[in-house]
Fold this sequence. Notes:
The chain is an alpha+beta fold. It is built from 8 helices and 25 strands.
Amino acid sequence: MSTSTEQFADVSATTLLRFATAGSVDDGKSTLVGRLLHDSKSVLTDQLEAVEAASLKRGQEAPDLALLTDGLRAEREQGITIDVAYRYFATARRRFILADTPGHVQYTRNMVTGASTAELAVVLVDARNGVVEQTRRHAAVAALLRVPHVVLAVNKMDLVDYAEPVFAAIAEEFTTYASELGVPEITAIPISALAGDNVVEPSAHMDWYGGPTVLEHLETVPVSHDLTACHARFPVQYVIRPQTAEHPDYRGYAGQIAAGAFRVGEEITVLPSGKTSTITGIDALGESVDIAWAPQSVTIRLADDIDISRGDLLAPVGDAPATSQDVEATVCHVADHPLAVGQRVLLKHTTRTVKAIVKEIPSRLTLDDLSQHPNPGQLVANDIGRVVVRTAEPLALDAYADSRRTGSFLLIDPADGTTLAAGMAGESFATTRTVTAVNEEEGWDF
């Protein structure tokens, strides 16, 4: 069965939006999400009844909508979000995958997880407190992860008498800060998640605001899912060789296309070996197709028997990333114990995991003024900094600015498998930033 170019063009269009919420503790993230789900009629009757019962048990007269997302017992007892809570809902205009991320500083690492695949981030600010350090941290994470759209939701406007000057001052401060980080689009919306003002329905208390509600903006923000326009990349996950009477010579390379599209007859390069071949067949869901595109899972067959294994990367000839054993990147440190210069780690990039060593930590980002603290020696939990890592084997990384899928990686503790840091290869922010120069050192043993 052959797939036409017309079908290929149609599939790239979608109405799905992935977004994440973030903010400091008690800014009202879970309440906002609960209000969003409740007022958009996305809550099942039995779920609402359970929330009402739990609220009454806690002595609350009205349902606590935050309980719709704070699913862990510890979260409900402490009144904070600990884990990333994923919620799926839909309106008549768009489908949504929502990641409600924690606000406490010790769980900033969870925001990295929730926002890594998001096209939009909703950053909440308590109107009484304004922009705080954690607000700046979340803005920096969103900028590092290249989240294209950021919504500043100034919450609890009911507690400041819906005052426009309060909202305007917070919006100006946040917009200036986020713009310096290179966030391309920022939309500020004054809300009261508890009362429902400007969440789904327009507020009757803020006639001075003429912009969209949160849901209206989520439904209409332009989002591009066209991974087919990116450089074509296919990380090999598994080599299929049935060696049966029916398929005695079948050799296929299975995996998920990370970006771009592949066609039968196209010349490809195998990385890191650099060997070339031609695609003779593409199998998808048991059928042969002429073309496949991200994020389809397929099996690719080649004209030549090349030594290819899990972790290798297929890319078009003439459009392949350069391979290198020196990785320069920005990382968000997510482990409780520090990441230090000279530390041995594992680096996981797509389906490939290699041994590595931390060669340099040129700088650590200071969130207050966005300055770079040179040569900190180590990064501790929730730090954001630049690193230079030397790998035991060559890697084919794209710049994170070009591809969020093939420009990202993890640093892992080889002793226990703990994730140490999430890394983004290449420049840290969309804007040009000055970082302390790295001194070359000799004596590496691989």
